[in-house]
Design goal:
Subcellular location (chain B): Cell membrane
Strand order of the largest sheet of chain C: 1-2
Number of helices of chain C: 13
Radius of gyration of chain B: 19 Å
Chains: A alpha/beta (395), B mainly alpha (291), C mainly alpha (326)
Membrane topology (chain B): Multi-pass membrane protein
Helix content of chain B: over 70%
Structural class of chain B: mainly alpha
Strand content of chain B: under 5%
Largest sheet of chain C: 2 strands, antiparallel
Oligomer: heterotrimer
Keywords (chain B): Amino-acid transport, Cell inner membrane, Cell membrane, Membrane, Transmembrane, Transmembrane helix, Transport
Radius of gyration of chain C: 20 Å
Number of strands of chain B: 4
Largest interface: A-C, 62 and 63 residues
Structural class of chain C: mainly alpha
Number of domains of chain C: 1
Shape of chain B: globular
Number of strands of chain C: 2
GO molecular function, one term (chain B): L-isoleucine transmembrane transporter activity
Distance between the termini of chain C: 36 Å
Pfam families (chain B): BPD_transp_2
Strand content of chain C: under 5%
């Protein structure tokens, strides 16, 4: 027995020694493989995608993939980029952080992609971004709204609004246009997007002199909102801010009107997560009279928007949601920049994306020094279960 | 007061959803001692079957309900024969893992075939009754009524029919039951058929109530229903009902007093407390272990 | 005893050598960063699976709360490395953070184990699952660690050799524990709790001990994971994660350490290999899982261990049969 534990002790000490030794020795040998991204100037241009094709937010991943697939098809029909065919390679991340990191490594090391579209959720993008940054592969997220994502480094970009902007848009809209003084906030406790927007709304709304009378939360996957809606209703707010995605918002609006009996003068407000035809299917006429901020409005005469919606309808036989449009734009930022830079070399491509000016589906995209787009938001009112342009808010 | 009553009603209707799913859970557990993790997903399949019955085959609501129950009853039997029967004498954890695998399969196959997008389930015309400042809708009454009715029917079937007697015998001692001439295979299949049909009924009713069906809709209610079943005493039919209602009302109460973010934690906290005080659940009998 | 000792030393030395070789291959670029990432994930899952095996397989207590312990370890170690400005070299800070994360997770395991271990079988499973969820909800609401937005900016201290060596250490500890008198006591609880009690074994003590040790390594695993993906989010530690680890333990064979190791490596590999199938990925994974369980319900290794003895035995057999043929 003595002998046994003695040997184990020995091994343990040996291991700890080797651990510390290797960890120290590791430091100078760190520089990431620069082999990645050295695309030959021949052959296909490979763009990677880190998207949740399975798991909790698979529905957003599927929309995003459809958006990028559409763009790639259109671009290739016109002869590709730099005369080369574009290939879009999607890696599933199971809607998880760990898988996003591994997916990033795979795309960069194995598939030698020149740039990455993704991920959807900010927390997933934050796991992939450091890897893209170290390998110096540009990464453009369509829909990650947390400001921290692009703060990871100069190779990380986004196509969406950041939380502080969009939350402020709706808070100011509530105070100025709707003359609201009492607001309630309903957030999805599992979603960083929802919490982020909710916090900004709260800060701006109270700074505008309003009060938050009720704050409740739910979790993604919930279907029963009667309880929290009853709580909110009894707090008697003027407006209810629900920064969540259409799949839950549809149910919330439906139950608010039909089960809990919210008075029609209480307006529900939301962000770009509301933008999907599914909202009207799920909410029915309960969606009427409420407002949300978005990147574009279908009834604004923009050739880009019209062309996108028509092409999307023709290909998939459905109306696109915000995620499809944002992913389309994110991929478009990359492809346009490759064309402009005339190369897929990482530093040149990075500079081209940083300087990109694009009349995109989701508005005029021009990035600021933090690599976040500066674009105006439109406020949309729902009438007759259709989106109607209400007003434009400039940054 | 009105708010309290309204929240109580909200809690009861949420609880009856859990109870509906928990009934099937508890039945299957009672007879094969298997936590059928795929039960919540059978509920989802049932909801989709109802959805397509109404949308594609234009069936009226109640016909769609029956159709969905039939589809899931068959699915339940097939599932049992293929995936669980070969493992009847294997370590129990193997069957449990197979159930997890089946759950993953149902969810992801539905995502693959139908897509992850939520689908709007056609609602029946809604009627709201108001009294004393409290609103109750016909859907809520329908769900609670169905849950109670099914519980009574099940209780009757288990206690007073020949098949029920066979089920109880199998649950007590499978080998002895076999020796007494009971067809154990058929009894277990029958249990799965009923349990799955119940899940389908739950799925269609809930789909109708909330107006939505989607591939992951079974995951959370499935877990909650399992908690409800354990709370009431797993394997005991009225226990599922009681557990479901307690869980629903507790969740509503937690949200009503402003701790909605801690709702799930409280639900599990109650479960753990009850289990520590009464390890076999509220209606469960503590069976002394014999050496 | 001598021969066994010697064999174990050889295996341990071999394992260390293999780790060093792999790390050298990673450094010189033969194995790129993607392979390094996958190998690191495998090592982390080996830590998680073998430590769960200590609770589920060796002591026979059905726990579904492993993700909760990993969360505790991950978050507290990340607090050490990000929130405190310790004036120490990075490997020292990381070592301290791993220890602290593991110890706090062990404390959580102890506190949870004490009341819940009165429960048996499925009731214990659901209670531990509940605790795991409660822990997750607490982190989801804790603003200091980022709440629902998650905690980012964690230094990427984890590299392959760290994760690998920690996995080796975990395995050595657990194998040693299994063969100690404490371990034998735990096994006796698995085999027959009442008999064990009659023999004078303090079953509660050993159950809590297994729980505490298991939670410690789960915490270390969570800490390593957090410093690999440089981000912690409550969603990472959902029930799915616990189930995934349980899958590895069951697939490898309850009570078989080598089984857990093989299953952790195999499942990580399969999940990686299937990634390109997108929506079909999890469908295939699920079908494979059902298939394996149907054909090998006792797990790949049952309760047996794959050992050098086995290897030498078979070689011997091979030789002798050849001799017989000649």
């Amino acid at each position: 027995m003595m002998n046994n534990s003695g040997s184990v002790l020995l091994i343990t000490m040996l291991l700890i020694a080797s651990l510390i030794f290797t960890a120290c020795a590791n430091k100078p040998a760190e520089p990431a493989a620069p082999a990645a991204g050295d695309n030959t100037e021949e052959g296909d241009i490979v763009i990677g995608g880190i998207l949740p094709m399975t798991g909790a937010i698979a529905t957003f991943g599927q929309s995003s993939k459809k958006g990028v697939d559409l763009l790639v098809e259109q671009v290739n029909a016109k002869g590709g980029v730099l005369g080369r065919k574009v290939v879009f390679k999607v890696e599933d991340n199971k809607s998880t952080q760990a898988d996003s990191a591994t997916a990033a490594q795979k795309l960069i090391q194995q598939d030698k992609v020149v740039a990455i579209v993704g991920a959807v959720a900010s927390s997933n993008s934050l796991a992939a971004a450091p890897i893209a940054q170290e390998a110096k592969i540009p990464m453009v997220s369509g829909s990650s709204t947390n400001p921290a994502v692009t703060e990871v480094g100069d190779y990380i970009f986004r196509a969406a609004f950041i939380d502080p902007f969009q939350g402020a848009v709706m808070a100011n809209f509530a105070t100025k246009d709707l003359k609201a003084v009492k607001a309630a906030i309903m957030t999805d406790a599992n979603s960083d997007y929802s919490i982020g927007l909710g916090n900004v709304f709260k800060d701006v709304f109270t700074a505008n002199g309003g009060t938050i009378v009720s704050e409740v939360s739910f979790v993604s996957g919930d279907t029963d909102f009667n309880t929290i809606l009853t709580t909110v209703k009894n707090a008697k707010p003027d407006v209810v801010f629900v920064p969540s995605y259409y799949d839950t918002v549809g149910l919330i609006l439906n139950q608010a009107k039909n089960n809990v009996g919210f008075p029609a003068e209480v307006k529900f407000l939301g962000g770009d997560g509301w933008d999907s035809p599914a909202l009207f299917e799920l909410a029915g006429d309960a969606a009427n009279g409420h407002y949300f901020s978005n990147h574009y409005s279908p009834d604004v005469d923009s050739p880009e928007v019209k062309a996108f919606i028509d092409a999307y309808k023709a290909k998939y036989n459905e109306v696109p949601d915000a995620l499809a449009a944002l992913a389309y734009d994110a991929a478009n930022m990359i492809l346009t920049s490759i064309e402009k830079a005339g190369t897929t070399d990482a530093p040149a491509l990075r500079d081209a994306i940083a300087a990109v000016e694009l009349n995109a589906v989701t508005g005029k995209i021009k990035l600021n020094e933090k690599r976040d787009p500066v674009k105006s938001a439109v406020v949309i009112v729902v009438e007759d279960q259709k989106q109607k342009y209400f007003t434009t808010v400039n940054p | 007061m009105a708010e309290f009553l309204q929240q109580l009603i909200n809690g009861i209707s949420l609880g009856s959803v859990y109870a509906l799913v928990a009934l099937g859970y508890t039945m299957v557990y009672g007879i094969v001692r298997l936590i059928n993790f795929a039960h919540g997903d059978v509920y989802m399949v049932g909801a989709f079957a109802g959805y397509f019955a109404i949308k594609t085959f234009k069936l009226p609501f109640f016909a769609a309900l029956v159709a969905a129950m039939a589809v899931c009853a068959i699915l339940g039997v097939i599932m049992e024969r293929i995936a669980y029967k070969p493992l009847r004498n294997a370590p129990r954890v193997a069957a449990l893992m197979t159930a997890v695998g089946l759950s993953m399969f149902y969810q992801n196959f539905t995502i693959y075939r139908i897509g992850a997008q939520p689908k709007a389930f056609p609602k029946i015309a809604q009627v709201n009754w108001q009294f004393a400042g409290v609103t109750v809708s016909n859907s809520q009454v329908l769900i609670l009524g169905t849950a109670i009715a099914l519980m009574i029917i099940l209780h009757f079937v288990v206690q007073h029919t020949k098949m029920g007697k066979a089920m109880r015998a199998v649950s007590q001692d499978r080998d002895a039951a076999m020796l007494m001439g009971i067809n154990v295979d058929n009894t277990i299949s029958f249990t799965f058929a009923i349990g799955s049909a119940l899940a389908a009924a739950g799925g269609v009713l809930v789909g109708q109530y909330y107006g939505v069906v989607q591939p992951l809709m079974g995951a959370l209610p499935g877990l909650k229903a399992f908690v409800a079943a354990v709370l009431g005493g797993i394997g005991i039919i009225p226990g599922a009902m009681i557990g479901g209602l307690i869980l629903g009302v507790a969740e509503a109460g937690v949200s009503a007093v402003g701790f909605s973010t801690y709702r799930d934690a409280v639900a599990f906290g109650i479960l753990i407390l009850i289990l520590i005080v009464k390890p076999a659940g509220i209606l469960g009998k503590n069976v002394r272990e014999k050496v | 005893m001598r021969a066994m000792d010697k064999n174990r030393l050889i295996v341990a030395a071999g394992a260390v050598a293999l780790g060093i070789i792999l790390q050298l291959l990673i450094w010189n670029g033969t194995l790129n960063a993607y392979y390094a990432q996958v190998l690191t994930m495998m090592s982390i899952f080996v830590i998680m699976a073998t430590s769960l095996n200590l609770i589920n397989g060796i002591t026979g207590q059905f726990s579904l709360g492993h993700a909760g312990f990993a969360a505790v370890g991950g978050y507290f170690s990340a607090i050490i490395t990000t929130r405190l400005q310790l004036p120490l070299p990075a490997p020292m800070i990381f070592t301290i953070s791993l220890l602290v994360g593991g110890l706090i997770a062990a404390l959580a395991g102890f506190l949870i184990g004490l009341p819940t271990l009165r429960l048996k079988g499925d009731y214990l499973a659901i209670a531990t699952l509940g605790f795991g969820e409660i822990i997750r909800v607490l982190f989801l609401n804790w603003k200091y660690v980022g709440a629902a937005a998650g905690m980012w900016g964690i230094p990427g201290y984890t590299n392959f050799i760290w994760a690998y060596m920690l996995a080796v250490l975990t395995v050595i500890f657990i194998v040693h524990f299994m063969n100690s008198s404490h371990g034998r006591a735990c096994i006796s609880i698995r085999e027959d709790e009442i008999a064990a009690e009659t023999m004078g074994i303090n079953t509660t003590k050993y159950k809590v001990m297994a729980f505490t040790f298991g939670a410690f390594f789960a915490g270390v695993g969570g800490a390593v994971l957090g410093h690999l993906i440089r981000l912690l989010h409550p969603a990472t530690f959902s029930m799915t994660f616990s189930v995934e680890i349980l899958l590895m333990v069951v697939l490898g064979g309850l009570g078989s350490i080598t089984g857990s190791i093989s299953a952790a490596i195999l499942l990580t590999f399969v999940s990686e290999a299937l990634r390109k199938f997108n929506e079909l990925r999890m469908v295939i994974y699920a079908l494979m899982l059902i298939g394996i369980m149907l054909f090998r319900p006792q797990g790949l290794f049952g309760r047996k261990e794959f050992s050098l003895d086995l290897l030498t035995d078979s070689r011997f057999m091979f030789k002798s049969s050849k001799n017989r043929g000649a």
